[in-house]
Specification:
Length: 146
């Protein structure tokens, strides 16, 4: 079984791969890129919910820190969700310029966000939640996205 940090870091990698596939699909043919977009959007939302509904919740319960790093990450999730929605609208409108403008912004935000999580928050979570690590990873793996 992987640790919380390993599991969520691997999830970042999956999202990054789907992001690259989506950008490649749009560059080839925006008309046929909807499926790649939906795969990225779905997996990214699943990642956000695993963090927000499981890991962040457990971390906040254990540490009492509700206005610290998890609050910042939730705010950034909102920003990334909005950019992802705008990219979907751009695909629907067949507007490559709008798509790539939003995807460039999203890529920068995701890189910064993932670095903060992987280097700081996941390490803190693993330290505080190590005794419950298997249970938390199981919960994230079996979570149903809302």
């Amino acid at each position: 079984m992987s640790t919380i940090k390993e599991y969520l870091t691997a999830s970042h990698g999956q999202c990054d791969e789907l992001f690259a596939n989506m950008e490649d699909a749009v560059s080839k043919s925006i008309e046929s890129a909807k499926e790649a977009y939906e795969a990225f959007a779905k997996e990214t939302e699943r990642h956000f919910q695993m963090e927000e509904r499981v890991m962040f919740f457990e971390f906040e319960q254990k540490t009492g820190m509700t206005q610290g790093p998890t609050a910042v990450m939730r705010h950034e999730h909102v920003q990334m969700r909005n950019l992802t929605q705008e990219m979907g609208k751009a695909i629907d409108a067949k507007d490559k310029d709008k798509f790539f403008g939003n995807s460039e912004t999203l890529m920068i935000l995701m890189q910064q966000h993932n670095m903060k999580e992987e280097q700081m928050l996941y390490t803190m979570a693993q330290q505080h939640l190590s005794a419950d690590s298997d249970r938390i990873v199981d919960m994230m793996q079996s979570m149903i996205v809302q």
